[in-house]
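Thread: "does anyone have the structure for this chain?"

Original post by V.I.:
We have the sequence but no experimental structure in hand. Need at least a predicted one for the grant figures.
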Amino acid sequence: MSPSDDRIKPHLSKVLASPLFLNATRQSQFLEFVVTRAVEGQSAEIKETLIGVKVYGRDPSYDPKEDSIVRAEASRLRAKLREYYATLKP
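Reply from O.Q.:
Generated one for you, tokens below.
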């Protein structure tokens, strides 16, 4: 069972408004892009090249083998999310 849209969007807003994400513009855009696509039922379309073009402004001919921005930022985003959830009180 997956969370409903009415629970996901407020939670995403809370994460993005947190001190960890307030000044992390690109990581916030990355997270928002991926979550929004997933909520809209477009998970299968979330690809490295699409993120490179839509979030990081790469040219549509962008080759992720030559430019690892998405992988590098995904790693940073995962670390930031781990930090965010580690700071929450149970």
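V.I.: this helps a lot. The CA atoms of residues 52 and 58 lie 5 Å apart.
O.Q.: and The chain has five helices and no strands.
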